[in-house]
Specification:
This protein has one domain: Four Helix Bundle (Hemerythrin (Met), subunit A) (Up-down Bundle), CATH 1.20.120. The chain has 7 helices and no strands. The mean pLDDT is about 80.
Length: about 210
């Protein structure tokens, strides 16, 4: 196993550790979860750079890298719903995860047809914004331990900024998901046409028998 894949798998193993620290529900756990997520984000950037620069691109890496990203981001968003102080409703996270399932399903169909669906610019921006939003929300969780020393306007900002960030995330995520489906709808249409032709051929064969 090459170095890039080791970093990717390390990111997968960080997910349960990240969640455990986050649900300690204290300042120490919040700081640790922030540190772990930042390290995971760094490995996300670094393993891709290593794979490209050292020609270490592999089938395992193509499978594990996006999976590790989705596991980490989904774990963070789902955990945020379970933290009342963040005021993040479940429907936001449900929409985000449904979008990821839809795009992943589209890519699987495309691969079965020998087509590679590359990440769009909007998709890349979405991923970066998700990572940044999670880091900011984790930082705000850390700051909540010092809210007693802050003026009212700052406390109000820290209280409701996580929800505002998540609303932007869900809007961006939904928009890029719709963009993917519209741009590549021909893949699904082509699949349907082939299926219809196959069924027609079977019916013709039955009628000839």
């Amino acid at each position: 196993m090459n170095l890039a894949n080791k970093l990717t798998l390390a990111r997968v193993f960080m997910v349960p550790v990240f969640v455990c620290f986050l649900f300690l529900n204290n300042l120490f756990g919040n700081y640790c979860s922030l540190l772990i997520f930042v390290l995971a984000a760094i490995t996300d950037w670094y393993d891709g750079k290593i794979a490209r620069d050292r020609n270490m691109v592999s089938t395992l890496g193509k499978f594990a890298d996006p999976l590790a990203d989705k596991m980490l981001v989904s774990a963070a968003f789902i955990s945020f719903v379970g933290i009342p102080a963040l005021h993040i409703p479940a429907w936001i996270v449900i929409l985000i995860i449904c979008r990821e399932f839809a795009v992943t399903g589209l890519r699987l169909v495309a691969v079965s047809e020998g087509i590679v669906v590359h990440a769009s610019e909007g998709g890349k921006i979405k991923t970066v914004f998700q990572m940044v939003a999670i880091i900011v929300i984790l930082l705000l969780l850390c700051l909540k331990g010092y809210m007693g020393y802050m003026p009212d306007f700052l406390r109000l900002t820290i209280e409701w900024l996580p929800l505002s960030l998540m609303l932007i995330v869900v809007a961006l995520t939904t928009w890029t998901g719709i963009e993917y489906l519209i741009k590549h709808k021909g893949i699904l249409a082509e699949k349907d046409e082939k299926g219809e032709k196959g069924e027609k051929g079977e019916r013709d064969e039955e009628s000839n028998c």
